[in-house]
Amino acid sequence: MCYESEFPKAQRRTGPVAIAHCRRGDKQRRYRYPSTMDLTEEDDYDYHDNLTLNYSYEDYHTVCEKADVRSFAGLFLPVVYAACVVVGLAGNSLVLAMYAYHKRLRRTMTEVFLAHLAVADLLLLLTLPFWAADAVLGWELGLPLCKLVSACYAINFTCCMLLLACVSIDRYLASVRAEGRNQGRLGRVFTRAHCGKVCLGVWAVAFLLGLPDLLFSTVRETSERRVCMAVYPASLALEVKACLEVVEVLLGFLVPLLVMMWCYAGVGRVLRRLPEESRGRRQRAIRVLLVVVGVFVVTQLPYNAVKMCRAINSVYTLVTHCGVSKALDRAAQVTESLALTHCCLNPLLYVFLGSSFRQYVLKAAKAFGERTRRRRGVQREDEGMEISFNSHNATSQETSTFSI
């Protein structure tokens, strides 16, 4: 029995390595084949070397076809991506509009981080229509867009996670300042004067993690369609690529999660020490913190767990069954879509739950409504003057006609 793994969507470097089991009599040999999502020149060389063995092509009895996985991606991904784009663009655009309209919202570091977070979310969401079209039709947009969209996806996805960690650190330091305690070195770094440097460092780290996608992404022809994927040179072994995956999981999930848990635990301790008369506000604030951490875990943990499994499998080839390979492919699609929903939830969790931002939104809506009413009032006055003027002319004409 032989099977070969294919993956429908350009999932960057997370594609599984296909395994082929071939039986001839009592003997069983196992070969490694590059999948369409994890291809290197070295793998191509090994593949042709394996064909020179004594086993002929007739020894292959069954091939693990992934047509059903590609069909699932073509139906599932466009629907989810379209919903994410509509909701995420509306929420994050409103956040940026409020920050541009109200200069007071740019006073603290948290607000600056949230503005950068909205920008990263928007740039990430703008790549989704390209991946939706790729899932349905294949990649028909050329090599430059393949490199640009792949790098933009990786950079902004990592940047969003790091910015969430920065927000939690700044909130923790704010609670420490409220109690009058020493903030240490962290407090000297996270100041309004160094806010630009911190944001620049976050974007720089995200760019470094997205640099391999920019350099190695290319368009390859498969049996059915063109695919935008990362193709590594032979000098980069599978272990190196797996290490890149592990680094992405660490910096894009594990480190932000640990930072958030540690910082929000400190904020929770400060809230519990508040006096009893503010018990209601304290409980509401603690519930918000639990929701923020819980949503992050629910949306990001499944995707990163699958990503780690695929990275381990690319080195040790643990998946040797066609059904398991298909299930892993579908799990990667579903969990990555779940992780992308966090871009839609960020405005709700970090901005709209804040009473100050809601007040600014209400003020802006009230000012807009007043301007609209004034414009309508001016138009109605103009129309009324025009109508009265015309009616006066008509009356005067009629009066002159029926004059005695």
Notes on the protein architecture:
72% of the residues lie in helices and 7% in strands. The chain is globular and about 70 Å long. A three-stranded mixed beta sheet has the order 3-5-4. The protein has a two-stranded antiparallel sheet with strand order 1-2. Strand 1 (18-24) and strand 2 form a beta hairpin. Helix 5 packs parallel to helix 8. It has one domain (67-361): Rhopdopsin 7-helix transmembrane proteins, CATH 1.20.1070.10. The longest helix has 47 residues, at 355-401. The chain starts with 17 loop residues before the first strand and ends with a helix. With 404 residues, the chain is mostly helical.
The CATH level-2 architecture is identified as Up-down Bundle
**Average of pLDDT:** 76
What is the number of strand segments? 5
What's the CATH topology name? Rhopdopsin 7-helix transmembrane proteins
Q: What radius of gyration results from the CA coordinates?
A: 29 Å
Transmembrane segments: 79-101, 113-133, 153-174, 195-216, 246-265, 285-303
Main location: membrane
InterPro entries: ACKR4 (IPR005383), CCR1-9-like (IPR050119), Chemokine_rcpt (IPR000355), GPCR_Rhodpsn (IPR000276), GPCR_Rhodpsn_7TM (IPR017452)
GO molecular function: C-C chemokine binding; C-C chemokine receptor activity; scavenger receptor activity
